[in-house]
Structures are given as C-alpha cells and as structure tokens.
Amino acid sequence: MKRDNINYLAVGSFVLLMGAVLLYGLYRITGHSGKGTLYVTHFANVAGIKTGSVVTFEGYEVGNVALIEPVAHENRTRYRISLNINKPVRIVADSRALIATPGLLSAPLVEIKEGESRELLAAGGEIRGISGSNLMESMAALASQLGEITETGLKPLLTQISKRVDTLGSSMEKNLPPAMEDMRSTLARINNTAKRVESLFSDENLKRMQGTMGNADEASASALKLSRELHAVTQEVSGLVKDSRGIVNSTGKELESSLRRADAVLYQLESTGRHLNEFSRQVRENPSALINSRPPVDTAGDQK
C-alpha cells in the first residue's frame, strides 16, 4: 500500500512538472518573455494584431506587443500599441512601424523599419506608424476584384463565346459537307492534272523536247545568218538608191527639155487643127471654093 502511494506521488509530480513546462512554453510562445524597453506607436487598423504578437526589427524578432488601447484622435479612433523591446537594437528617431504579414499562413506582426537619423529614440518614445500592405486584405480585395471581373466580364464573354461556338457549329454542320465534296472534286481534278503533267514529261516527250530545242538552236543560228545577209543586202540596196537618185536627177533634166519640145509640137498641132477646122467650115459653106480657089503664093522665093 505504501509503495502504491509512492508511485502515485511520483506520477503526480511528473504531471505537475510537465504542466509547468507547458505553461512556461506557452508563455514564451505568446511573447511574454520578460520586461524590456517600451515604445509606443499608433495605427488606424490593428487587424490580426493582439497582445503578445511578435515585434521585429528589419525582420529580426526583438520583442512583443505589450498592450493595445483605443484612443480618440481628431474625431477618429486610433489604436495605441505598446511595444516591449527586449533585444538590444538601435531604434533611431525616424524609424517607422507597420503591420506586416511575412507569409500566407503567418500571423500578422509589427515590423520596425530602421531610419537614417543618428539620434536614438528614447525609451517610451513614439515610433511613427505607417500603413503597410496587409496580405489578407490584399487577397480579399483581389478576390473581390476577380469576382467583379467574373460577373461583369467573363460571364458575358463566355456567353458570347458559347453563342458564337453554337453558330459556328451549325454553320460548319451545314456548309462542311458541300465544302468537303468540292474538296474531293478538286483533289480529283488535281490528280488528273498531275497525271497529264506526268505524261507530258514522259521520256519520249522529253526526247522530243530535246530535239525541238536542238532544232530551235539551229533555227536561231540560221536566223542569225539570214539577218547578217539581209544587213548586207540592205547596204547594197542603200548604195543602189543613192545611184538611182543621181540617175533620176540627170534624167529629170532631159525629161524637162523633152517636155518643152513636146509643148512646142502640141502648140503647132493645135494651130494646124484650127486651120483645118476653118478650112472644113469654108468647104461646107462653099464647096465651089475648092475649084475657084487660088493657088497658094509661093513665098519661099521672096524669103530668099
């Protein structure tokens, strides 16, 4: 019986010890790890921040949130946060504090950004609070925007695409068979044309084409020879034309003198014709004039 009491006492002591260790661990986890230097900052929104939240300095954990108090500032509610800094860090006067979320599954924390001033901030001083990007709020805003885009843009677009696809499907169902038939007939014609082209370029036709090309070469040579001969004939004809021009010029002068002589003869013939007409008129009027006519006077002797 005494031995059982000792066992119970040992088990109870072990349980109490483990409970104390657990409480100490929870105390350490929640950030209540001891008193340090207190600083204050103000935020308009402390979503996700609570007493015991982690405080970091350029990403390095330096303390925890000691107290959150709502205060009135210019007819608006702001939150005064006491920061318990228990690590030796240099917090200068122009440092800034913001609420940040390191990761998607991480809890929000207060991040202190180091300034450029050389003056250290005194204990209990105020670190200027700035609004930082809240990952959860950004994701919520993004989800809201995506939902709005889906409602106003994607759904009408998908509706239009569905209508167009239906229209295109019915049009293809209606027009595709005739188009396929036309394609088949076209392919058949192409095959027939290919066969004709193949027969056109058969070995026998190629030989004929080669012979024709040879004849064409010979004809070309003959044409070149004929062209040269025609050029020579052209030169000879040019010379003959020059000679004929000289002949025509000399002959023209002789023709001109002959024409003058012919004009004189024609004038005499015309005069003779007039005399004969006059004589025939007189004979018709007085036939006896042939009997009673005087012999012509010989004027030859007088001229002598």
Highlighted features:
transmembrane helix, 5 helices, alpha/beta, membrane, 304 residues, MCE family protein, MlaD_Phospholipid_Transporter, transmembrane, 7-stranded mixed sheet, disordered C terminus
Topology:
Layout: H1 2-29, E1 37-43, E2 54-57, E3 60-73, E4 76-85, E5 96-100, E6 109-113, E7 128-129, H2 135-200, H3 203-285, H4 289-292, H5 300-303
Parallel strand pairs: 2-6, 5-7
Antiparallel strand pairs: 1-4, 2-3, 3-4, 5-6
Describe this structure in words.
It is a single chain. This protein is an alpha/beta fold and 304 residues long. Among the domains are: 29-133; 134-200. It is built from five helices and seven strands; from the N terminus they run αβββββββαααα. It has helices at 2-29, 135-200, 203-285, 289-292, 300-303; strands at residues 37-43, 54-57, 60-73, 76-85, 96-100, 109-113, 128-129. A hairpin with a 2-residue loop joins β3 (60-73) and β4. The termini are far apart. Residues 300-304 have low confidence and may be disordered. Keywords: Membrane, Transmembrane, Transmembrane helix. Residues 279-304 are annotated as: Disordered. The chain crosses the membrane at residues 6-27. It comes from Candidatus Proximibacter danicus.
Number of helices: 5
Note the overall shape. elongated
Radius of gyration: 68 Å
Biggest β-sheet description: 7 strands, mixed
Mean pLDDT across residues: 78
Strand content: 15-25%
Structural class by secondary-structure content:
alpha/beta
- Poorly predicted regions are 300-304
H and E order: HEEEEEEEHHHH
Strand order of the largest sheet: 1-4-3-2-6-5-7
Provide the helix percentage: 55-70%
Distance between the termini: 218 Å
From the structure provided, what is the oligomeric state, counting identical versus distinct chains? single chain
How many individual β-strands? 7
